Amino acid sequence: MNGEKIALFCIDNLVWFFVILVFLIFAAFTPAITTPSSIIAILQIAAFVGPIALGLYLCILAGDFDLSLEQIAGLGAVLICWLVEISGWNLPYYVVLSIPFIAALLIGLFQGTLIGRFQLNPFLVTLAGWIIWRSLKQFFGGGHYFSVTKPEYIFLGYARIGGIIHVSTTIFLILAILIWFVLRFTKLGTWISAVGAAPGTSSRLGVSPGRIKILVHTVAALLAAFTGIFYVGQLRGFVQPNVADWDIFKAFIAVAVAGVDIRGGRGRVSNVIGGVLFYSIVLYGSQMLGIPWPFSEYILPGGLTLLAVALLHRLDILRDMIIARKVKVELGS
Amino acid sequence: MSEVEKEKKVSRRRFIGYVAAAVVAAGAVGAGLTYYFTRPTAPTTATAPPAGYVKKWPTPKLDLKKDTPYVCAAFIGLANPWDELNRLGTEWYCRDVLGWDLEIVWPEADVKKENDGVEMAIAKGVDGIVACPLDSLANSKIGEMAMNADLPLVEFGIDMYHHWPLAMYQRDDYDSGKFCGLFTIDELTRMYGKPEGKILHVHGYRGSMSDVLRTSGFHDVVTKYEGIQLIEVGNSWVATAEYPKVKAAMAANPDLRGAYEEMGGFHECVVTGARELGWSEEKIKDLICTNCDLFPVNIIGYEEGTQDYTHMMPTGPDMLTECFEQLREFWKKGAPDCIPPIGEPFTFEKYLPEMQWDAEVDGFKPLQFLRDPVWGIAGTKTTNKQYGHCPVKPAPCGGYETSWVVIPDRIITVEDYKELCIYWNWPIWGLKAWK
Asked: Which residues contact B248 (CB under 8 A, 6 or more apart)?
């Protein structure tokens, strides 16, 4: 039995073995990756992909997904810059910083309602959203390379706590812990997984899949807004209108490597953090190694993700076999 | 068949399946690598046309004394200052100054949309087309459509693989890279006694015309020196996306001596990356940072002492004024008389005599700047020998058929390339755009 427990533990937390493995491989070739500044840099990359990955994870857990999260993040960043540099309204900083959240809330509710209440296909709804929010982003940002230098706007993406860890990294970790708490210890968490795993059954048990979907899409959009605000500060306020483009693919890599079941209902927050770290280490390590760009940009992350997903798929089957055997033994006894 | 045998058979099948999958995967990787290392490079010089080939030209069908030209202007439709300024230049010169009717195609960086937009404009009955193809190959359909409709076509910014365009107007990205390279070599020699050490090269989107030209200009200068090691990163024009990569490369190479940045915002990546890695301000200022752009962040860089040199070339709503004048000349003289002969430098007076020099933007006369220019006209096998300091290259796409007109912002030579100069079209048009 102990062997089975260990096997299950290893399977459930496989992504962390990947994280350690790739880190050690890169460390063997380029020891500079083990320096504190490199580790902090890796954590910072994770903090930018992280909120989008968490949002995507919640959607997938509930049996959906959301392609538009990257554009919601980018729109948030551009809106802040537009309000500060172009509008001429001189709004207080706390009002400006709340605008991305208000926009995300409205977008999340809108898309969530279309998916949850009117049962439209999430792929098509969020694809349409991707196009619309991108157009809005370019409407506000078109023709401008923003340079927002006021500290109150760049603080969240640029500053460090005690000169060590970035504020953005800390916020990402706090968000992850909050989501973990909700999923682990509240009924809502169980309902989200239940809706993803078996929407029909959960509906018969009194859980409204529609409402849950509206909720997860709204929360996911709000999480994406954090990434948008981080982007304003990342380069001391230098923001382009195409900010955050293609970030959704990074989030998909993180979620896929984390072993989150794409059909919904299964997946751990801790593993999503692992997935995000995996992506960040591969990105950072491959650049440190000076691997030629077609390999470092495309082939290496793509190939490693494919390998991890294939392995996870095989191990998922093994996990199901172990659990089935365990249940059989328990029922027999 | 017993269960054990069945299981064995399944296992064998599975094993064969795995082996087959591994072979296919290895084959695919091998094929990919073989293709990558042996792939044909895009033609950089066109070959002469086959014997007996006769170039077709569009027919001038407009009487400028009676008709008001109706022109289609197709942009790449990216939300960046370069393209926005091109659009503003077009609206100003074509619509406000010349009084022509204008049909704008703004495809939002979508190749198909650009083709469709031009097709729609042709269907609406435009008399001529000015286009910046998003993709040299896919948007060569614009050349095909213009040819089928017998309409004159003038390109700017990016060339297409088609023989129909009358001429291609371009700022010189190669020049930007070349002078950044020269500055880097000079500074390395001044600071370290000889040109050697590691230089970070932050690329834009790989394979794009701008990246290729900015890279080749820089590399043509610095790769002559064996002591220089290039650290190459980047693959987009988005600074926030490239920042982690720049920082990683800097962490792995703390002994960097310089950075060549292909886009304005990359300077912020270098400076922020260095500060994040704990480099001293003195070390950051010692880093020889050259850049192909002049964005607000680069001006901040100059003020802070981190940006050492910028050589901005690829802007210019004035390019569009020349495109429209080129169309006017075509309707007046027909082709090929309207275009400069390949290999021959020309003057406005001779080739675009009706340029509206006194047209104003907010009380400023931007075209005055072009009063005394030196243009390079390129085609196959030609270099501008008369003006050796103006690097004219063979036309990459249209080749033999297309005059490729290189327009320097101002004539810069190896003697004066470090002098301060004002790029008129950026701040003036920029202010208009940012109002």
From this structure: A38, A41, A283, A284, A285, A287, A288, B233
Question: Could you give the angle at the alpha carbon of B403 between the alpha carbons of B400 and B405, nearest 5°?
Answer: 140
Average pLDDT for residues B187-215, to the nearest whole number?
Answer: 90
CA dist., res. B299 & res. B145, Å (int): 44
Q: What is the largest CA-CA distance in chain A?
A: 74
Q: Which two tokens stand for residue A297?
A: 């940009």
Contact of A297 with B235, CB cutoff 8 Å? yes
Nearest to B9 by CA among A322, B17, A321: B17
Q: What is the ipTM of this complex?
A: 0.88
Written as six digits, the tokens of A109 are 């509710």
The model's confidence at residue B45, banded by pLDDT at 50, 70 and 90, is: very low
Residue A284 scores a pLDDT above 80: yes
Of the candidates B237, B240, B251, the beta carbon closest to that of A32 is on B251
What confidence category does residue A157 fall into, taking pLDDT thresholds of 50, 70 and 90?
very high
How many residues are present in chain B?
435
Are A290 and B272 in contact (CB < 8 Å)?
Answer: no
B34 touching chain A per CB within 8 A: no
Beta bridge partners of B83: none
State which residue of chain B sits closest to A300, comparing Cα positions.
B29
Asked if A297's CB is within 8 angstroms of B240's CB, the reply is no
Give the C-alpha separation, B145 to B143, whole Å: 6
CB contact under 8 A, A288 and B252: yes
- Greatest Cα-to-Cα distance within chain B, rounded to the nearest angstrom: 96
Question: Which amino acid is present at B281?
Answer: E
Q: Express each pLDDT in A179-224 by its tens digit.
A: 999 999 999 999 999 999 998 899 898 899 999 999 999 999 999 9
> What's the rounded Cα separation, in Å, for the pair A320 and A325?
8
Contact B162, B144 (CB under 8 A): yes
Cα end-to-end distance, chain B, whole Å: 83
What is residue B404's three-state secondary structure?
A: strand
Phi and psi at residue B405, to the nearest 5°:
-100, 115
Task: Read off the pLDDT of residues B281-300 as tens digits, 9 standing for 90 and up.
Answer: 999 999 999 998 777 788 78
Distances (CA, A) of B405 to A196, B37, B171, B339, B408: 60, 33, 8, 10, 10
Structure letter (DSSP) for residue B361: B
Using CB atoms and an 8 Å cut-off, which of residues 203-262 of chain B contact chain A? 203, 206, 231-235, 237-241, 243-245, 247-249, 251-252, 254
Task: Kindly state the helix (H) or strand (E) to which residue B216 belongs, with its residue range.
Answer: helix B209-222
Q: What is the DSSP letter of B59?
A: P
- Residue B265 contacts A where some CB pair is shorter than 8 Å: yes
Is B201 near chain A, with CB under 8 Å? no
Arithmetic mean of pLDDT, A58-63: 96
Q: Do B241 and A246 touch (CB under 8 A)?
A: yes
Count CB atoms within 10 A of the CB of residue A290.
17
B81–A44 CB contact, under 8 Å: no
CA atoms of A43 and A165, how far apart (whole Å)? 8
Do residues B268 and B241 touch, judged by C-beta distance below 8 A?
no
* Nearest CA among B124, B160, B168 for reference residue B143: B160
CA dihedral B82, B87, B213, B246 (to 10 degrees): 30
Query: How far is B387 from B344, CA to CA, in rounded Å?
Result: 11
Give residue B307's region: left, alpha or beta (phi > 0; psi -120 to 50). Answer: beta
Of B68-82, B181-195, B249-263, the range with the lowest mean pLDDT is: B68-82
Its pTM surpasses 0.80: no
pLDDT over 50 at B387, yes or no: no
The CA distance from B29 to the nearest CA of chain A, in Å, is: 10
